[in-house]
Amino acid sequence: MGRKQQHPNADPLPEPKKKRRVGFSNTDAGVEPNDCIKIYLVSKKEEVGTSDGFCIDPVDLNSFFEEDEKIYGYQGLKITIWVSSISFRAHADITFQGTSDGGKGITDLKSALEKIFGETLLDNKDDFMQSFSTENNFISSVVSHGEKLQTKTSNGHITHVNGNSEATSSDLEVFCLKIDNLAAGHLYSRLVPLVLLLVDGSNPVDVTDPSWELYLLTQKKIYQPENTRHLLLGFAALYRFYHYPDGSRLRLSQILVLPPYQHKGYGSCLVEVLTDVAISENVYDLTVEEPLDYFQHVRTSFDIKRLLAFEPAQEAVKSAVSRLKQGKLSKKAHIPRFLPPPDVVEGVRKTLKINKKQFLQCWEILIYLGLDPIEKHMEDYVTIINKRVKADILGKDSEAAGKQVTEVQSVHDTETSFVMFRSQCGEVGGVQMDEDQTKTQEQQLQQLVDERIKEVKLIAEKVSQKHV
């Protein structure tokens, strides 16, 4: 069969259409703020743009960015933030290779950084650099509005500061200002970024509330006879409560030693000054609002030192130690609580301004220090710690029969949905913890006991070294 001929003047047949390949761009996975942001605390303009300043690390920046705590839309993003320890102004140096919307938008970096640094963030680098000279007396100007407190801290020893200067006890000064004072409020507003970054769970205090007090720990630096400046090492914010009928209570809400000066004894210095204020003013007591573990360690070490010199507390400790040494507690059906006498608890509060909760924390360490040699009595000591931990978690009568834990239906986390109750007349009811629940509870309680023993040993070792 012949092929059909196409007429020479006919339109050519259309080319078959090529299938278009449809491509999808990769979804922007974002970048963790901690992976692209570095924050430096600098004391002079020559440190800006170098690595000579103090890098504040680690800092959790994620919570300040987007709902899922990431930065989107940037390639090769690098943010370096400089914070002046002279004026507490800040400047951000932001560089990136390009931007693109990968489905998550492009993060507004300026507004995100302003959530942290607020008005302290200067857009113009020249303005930031000039602040080192134009505001070099900023801290001195603020403390001139405050009351200078008597300090007897650091025991006169020399502490190296930032590698190139020294501070002795005579160089350290503490000033107290009402935070509604214009100068104090101005300084605190510039310290807020460091509070947000470095004090877990903290929110800015109300600078218009006269019940807030700001305590500033400074190092006095004399450059010339007529030129004295103050370097801020740390600060504390306290709230003064009314206590019936004519007294007051002090609560420490925020305390921060600036990162370059941490682990040099300045935290203890501030605690000592605040304690002296509480004693000299005869306030009811001095408490701490949700202390972090590290600060609690510093605070307890300081209080132990004072309690070792307080005779009524020492007499009570000797009595408790004597009872503990009498026999194997782990083999006894009933283990005594080894609590301090109420009159001693009250005496400690009145004289040393240590509240009952804090004194009980110190009490266990005082007993540990009194057990010499500790190795001989360690089993019994662990037994009383175990009993106390169980009492705190399960109640004072945790060893009595009849207390039960049972799971209940809940729309929330089923693993934490339970009730605890006691049967009438101490009889064990039909619903009890199963074997796995009992084992898990025992493991959790043992972990708490182990952590407490470790903490006791660390503080005891620290206190003992100071008394060698």
Automatic annotation (TrEMBL):
A Gene Ontology cellular-component term: cytoplasm
Gene3D superfamilies: 3.40.630.30, Histone acetyl transferase 1 (HAT1), N-terminal domain
Entry-linked InterPro entries: Acyl_CoA_acyltransferase (IPR016181), GNAT_dom (IPR000182), Hat1_N (IPR019467), Hat1_N_sf (IPR037113), Hist_AcTrfase_B-typ_cat-su (IPR017380)
EC number(s) recorded for this UniProt protein: 2.3.1.48
Protein name: histone acetyltransferase
Key words, A-Z: Acyltransferase, Cytoplasm, Nucleus, Transferase
Swiss-Prot/TrEMBL catalytic activity: L-lysyl-[protein] + acetyl-CoA = N(6)-acetyl-L-lysyl-[protein] + CoA + H(+)
GO terms, molecular function: histone acetyltransferase activity
Top EC category: transferase
Biological process annotations from GO: subtelomeric heterochromatin formation
Secretion signal span: none
Locations listed in the record: Cytoplasm; Nucleus
Pfam family, one: Acetyltransf_1
Family from the record: Belongs to the HAT1 family.
Residue span, Histone acetyl transferase HAT1 N-terminal domain: 32-200
Region Disordered, annotated ranges: 1-27
Domain N-acetyltransferase residues, every copy: 232-289
